[in-house]
Specification:
Chain A is α/β, with parallel strands linked by helices and about 375 residues long. Chain A has helices at about 20-35, 50-55, 60-70, 85-100, 120-125, 140-155, 160-175, 190-195, 220-225, 255-270, 285-295, 325-330, 335-350, and strands spanning about 5-10, 45-50, 75-80, 105-110, 195-200, 200, 210-220, 235-240, 280, 365-370, 375-385. Chain A folds into 2 domains: about 5-115 and about 210-235, Thiolase/Chalcone synthase (Peroxisomal Thiolase, Chain A, domain 1); about 140-205 and about 235-385, Thiolase/Chalcone synthase (Peroxisomal Thiolase, Chain A, domain 1, 3-Layer(aba) Sandwich), CATH 3.40.47.10.
Chain lengths: ~375, ~375
């Protein structure tokens, strides 16, 4: 197995991009990644996308996007694992390079969500839950995460102010990220005064509907120095795991078993401990998700992450900065692209080029990307060279 | 890179399975594959499925199916490349085992197409074409393949009787396959008297709407002898390539460039020539597709496959038996499952357990699985051990 590095990154500003199609968004990000490292060829590509059939009436996006990027006849594989599709695309690309099947591989993610109205978008997102046992009964993702939040609150005494503190922190980070969908500071009061979507979750506890894409380029570490003008960032750990898709079948709601297993594998492979992680991007599709994720992947003990944002521990400048990109909450959440954008943030942090968001002396970073209510999780650990 | 073998296969009868859900179909095939080889654990799984969001209101089927099979927390990856999704799932599983990331991997395909009516199914299938330049203009797949057929007819003098001969042959093969959707003989006259769907293609030139699943289990060749009660079948070649998704951008319609590139790679890797292939499963979504595919992958010279079925060359007992399973035409075409069913047919042929369909002395077999109008193709070459 060969060591693998990320040598190129590309991502435009996320938001409601009505002037850009699915293919425009992808090509823009992919060309930026190619330009970032300056490679002249791709051997293969992966793209994570959750529901282009429902959002855009378009499946078969592997060849579609390869064609639009002008790189046919290379293999182009679309992978889907709901909101973890981007992380999964990165993992599959990593394996292909590590194994020696290909040298230069593009891993991208894209989702164009505003081609449909809010109701249709809610339906499309609901297909990440169990259609027969959850979605068909009328529950949507805010409802499912509200159940998780209630379970955590009853077990550990979490307050709605603690939840709101996560959103406030991530918005304060997004303010420093020019690519973030929302670039404005919010307060705990504003979160609590926003509409109640599914008690205890308010509108500002939820990540938004977003159009966007992100792309990175991987190659063998040995070639990275020659190929790229940037300091390569090495992939040292990768883990992917699954859990029951329906919440009712879980032993506990507030601990994400797939996240725990994926992290366990990534840490084993990387041969590092949770204490060595300097900067983290976790999947905060809802404020409660950030808290549960941090505990499930072993960065906090169960029950200990609930007040981490309120106490400043997970802020930029705190003991363990979490979601300095703004997270899904502020940067936006074009579902298939999110996992790749997490990788991009960690690469910039480890390159030392994150500007106002730079975490001092960041050497090792972790990404946690999950699908649905953590029925699937992909975790990666990256290290500065 | 390790040698890889197929050690288990599983598939139920295909057809209109109103009594079985997407997950039922998958689990049935997967359990048969597990039972066929008798392994007690899976390390990872891949599933090819084209459009569960549109057909069943369900995405995120990796963990859904892993959960229903009872194998969480193993990684479960859904891949999609329209009608080539199954072949792609097999290729990704092959790469994971060859690379040494996992030892025992399930590769499956599934599509449950009869949960929606004909119009909705046509829409869902149309998402494999270019939504903006083809589908939105009103053309569907029979129309696109009719254009290809017209182009071939004008160039090489093909007749509608030659096309019909492909359907007649594949139905005669399907008659010997207990898992085929259609088990009845048809005549050239019946094909020509069936409804004209898109001139020159009649209803009986077209593969049907089908519910079905198929699953195989791969492992390193070295372990295959110990693990399975069957003679292992070795994967000796694998190729995947893409082309423009829209037909208007192609230099010629009747030659599938992605198929040519995928086959070229598979033959190079296998170190065999087209003349050494004993049995072939190609993607006959329409009768014209079988003809173009055989030429594009190099088994016939351009213009030479048109009369092969009419002349008996591609019949069971002929010089090069093609689609002895019945092909998509007679066996059925649950899009995501088709590529895996092709592998299963070749495995049975190379094991020598194909019964009435057995090709005498079959040692090397090839599968050709393509998406849309060949915007993507996956080719595999397998060899008896």
């Amino acid at each position: 197995m060969r060591d693998v590095a990320v040598i190129g990154i590309g991502m435009s500003k996320w938001g409601e991009c009505w002037q850009h199609s699915l293919r425009d968004l992808f090509v823009s990000a992919a060309l930026q990644a190619i330009d970032d490292c300056g490679v002249s060829r791709l051997d293969s590509m992966y793209v994570g996308c959750m529901a282009p059939g429902l959002f855009n009436g378009q499946e078969h996006i592997g060849p579609l996007l390869a064609d639009y990027l002008g790189v046919t006849p290379i293999p182009a594989v679309r992978v889907e694992s709901a909101c973890a599709s981007g992380g999964l695309a990165f993992r599959q690309a990593y394996m292909e390079v590590a194994a020696g099947f290909s040298d230069i591989v593009l891993a991208a993610g894209v989702e164009k969500m505003t081609d449909v109205d809010g109701e249709a978008a809610t339906y499309a997102l609901g297909t990440a839950a169990d259609q027969e046992y959850e979605s068909f009964q009328g529950i949507t993702f805010p409802g499912l995460y509200a159940l998780i939040a209630r379970s955590y609150m009853q077990k550990y005494g979490l307050t709605v102010e603690d939840l709101a503190a996560v959103a406030v922190k991530n918005h304060s980070h997004g303010l420093k990220n020019p690519r973030a969908q929302f670039q404005r500071a919010i307060t705990v009061e504003e979160v609590l005064q926003s509409s109640l979507v599914a008690d205890p979750l308010h509108l500002l506890d939820c990540s938004p509907i977003t159009d966007g894409a992100a792309a990175v380029i991987l190659c063998p570490l040995r070639k990275a120095m020659k190929l790229s003008k940037h300091k390569p960032v090495k992939v040292i750990g990768s883990g992917h795991a699954t859990d029951t898709i329906a919440l009712h079948a879980r032993k506990q709601l507030e601990f994400f078993y797939s996240s725990a297993k994926a992290a366990e594998k990534a840490f084993q492979m990387a041969e590092v401990t949770p204490q060595q992680i300097d900067v983290v991007e976790v999947h905060d599709c809802f404020t409660i998700a950030e808290i549960c994720a941090l505990e499930s992947i072993g960065l906090f003990e169960p029950g200990q992450a609930g007040k981490a944002a309120a106490q400043g521990i997970t802020h930029l400048g705190g003991k363990l900065p979490v979601n300095v990109s703004g997270g899904l909450k502020s940067k936006g959440h074009p579902v298939g692209a999110t996992g790749i954008a997490q990788i991009i943030e960690i690469v910039e942090q480890l390159r030392g080029t994150a500007g106002e968001r730079q975490v001092a002396n960041a050497k090792i970073g972790l990404t946690h990307n999950m699908g649905g209510t953590a029925a699937s999780t992909v975790v990666h650990i990256l290290e500065a060279c």
